[in-house]
Amino acid sequence: MTGSELVGLIPLQSMLDAGKYFLTKQQRSTGVSEKELIRIAVLSMGLDELAPFVPEERIIEYLLKKNTDAKLVSLSLKDFADETASESPAPGGGSIAAYAGALGASLATMVANLSSHKKGWDQRWKEFSDWAEKGQGYKDQLIRLVDADTHAFNGIMAAFGLPKGNDEEKAIRHAAIQAATRTAIEIPFKVMETAYACLDLIKAMAIHGNPNSISDAGVGALCVRAAVLGAYMNVRINAAGYDDKAFVKDILAKGAALRGIHHRDGNGNSRDRRRKD
Questions:
Q1: Residue 262 pLDDT > 80
Q2: What is the value of pTM for the model shown?
């Protein structure tokens, strides 16, 4: 019998580095999911030859992870859709925008991986592997933002539920609402930034990637665009309730620029072309 045995626990990064090492040795794309990197590391080092290697029991970060932090993204696709369609206000548009962006990033990453392993393109595997790694980073960030947006919404609801029986309680409640509102502005703005950043990857895959997958890159672009537009709606609606108008003006201008509607009027001032209600 051959194999290796790991005594004690191991940091997640060590397993990810090992997975990338073995993929690189094989000139295979390292832009794969965290789960796949761990599988490659376990298989290559024979960690499951002597006894089953259960990542949730052997990797430090997985043992410490709070299950409540990723409630939505742990659901099946059907359960996620059912939860969205329910009478509960969350998950709402912000979480869906983040997930749409994650799907767009995933499609672009898929094209990169297919291109990395395309027959006849052997000398370009590292080029596409690097793009795939970047795409995995975007995807993972947007996946985290799915639950983060719902947590932000719940934070606002919790703040509004605080007592307001006297001036002191009202002041505490108002401060809590403002803090929660700022988070609820910053999270969808982060969705905008991350989804927008995916466009460089998608453009590169549409131009230089496997031509058989150009439609996948196109659908990815549509998903990412929807994420940017949808997240901006959430930035705007939450910004309406925030007291720091200088912050609001700045983040709305940045969001408008990402949204692609930033322009100058006749006086040289920045304007949002949409109707102001």
A1: no
A2: 0.84
